[in-house]
Amino acid sequence: MENKSNFVNHAQFIKYFYKAANAYKKFLGFSFDVPNLVFERTPEKNYSAKSVVPVKYLGQNVGNMVVISFQSRDGTGDESLYKIGQLVIPERLKHANHSEKVFPRTKEGIIYELFFPLFSVYENKINLFATSLEEITVDCVEKPKAVKKAWDLGLNSIDYVKRVKYEDKDIAQKCIAKIYLTVGYRGEGQRFGDPHAIYNPIPMNALQVAGFLTVKNSSNPLLKMINSCVFPPV
To answer: Which of 89, 106, 136, 154 is the most exposed place for a label (fewest CB within 10 A)?
Structure first.
């Protein structure tokens, strides 16, 4: 695996996560078990670090959030569903040693998956809620031939660079505590986001940190707030 040692230290992670968590609690009713937060490096994965955080919504336990940090060109894909050679990979997504990092993974058993943009760090400066990650899926679920981009999670790449690298204050207004859906159903019952992988396409030395919270049963209180989340474009 690639060397993933170049990212902010554990104390900084905790500090930045705490700031983001306070906003999600204040504006959206989520609370996180921050005191027990531990970020661990993941040399065996195609991304940089990971933590698992218990989450409550309006005082009720709703599951564990997986918090992942992404350096440039990190991805959550693997060969559990598709193998090297089975799918055509666009040139911009090709990796000489680890093409599997953009291979979509099955989301069987997940009703919804919530994506929380938490923060980015660039040159020791934090940008709350600034992410620009891509959800990668397949061209046809029934008969897949290639991987493709589904949509942006957070800012588009141009706005992200303007905000994080050049500190554009106008773009800062777009960086707020919001929740996206990476897996789920539309009103008419159409499934989206299954399978998928998450990928960081930004070619700059910025670390992006995001949280993923799944809904796996019909009694989860999170189902009551799904319509307030950001759905992918049709």
So the answer is: 106
Residue by residue, DSSP assigns 109-169 as T-SEEEEEEEEEEETTEEEET--EEEEEEES-SSS--BEEEEEEEES-HHHHHHHHTT--H
Residue linked to tokens 């069987």: 108
**114 token code pair:** 């919530």
Provide block-wise average pLDDT over 10 residues at a time, the chain (234 residues). 53 89 96 85 91 95 96 96 95 86 98 98 94 98 97 98 96 96 94 98 95 97 96 94
Phi, psi at 130, each rounded to 5°: -95, 110
Give the count of beta carbons closer than 10 Å to the beta carbon of residue 12. 15
pLDDT per residue over 132-163, tens digit each?
999 999 999 999 999 999 999 999 999 999 99
Angle at 77 between CA 190 and CA 192, to 5 degrees: 5
Rounded distance, CA 207 to CA 155, Å? 14
Report the candidate in 147, 177, 149, 164 with the shortest Cα–Cα distance to residue 203.
Answer: 164
Q: What is the pTM of this model?
A: 0.94
Nearest to 185 by CA among 151, 147, 159, 215: 215
Token digits of residue 225 = 């707030």
Strands, E assignment, 13-102: 30-32, 40-41, 49-57, 60-70
pLDDT at 6: 45
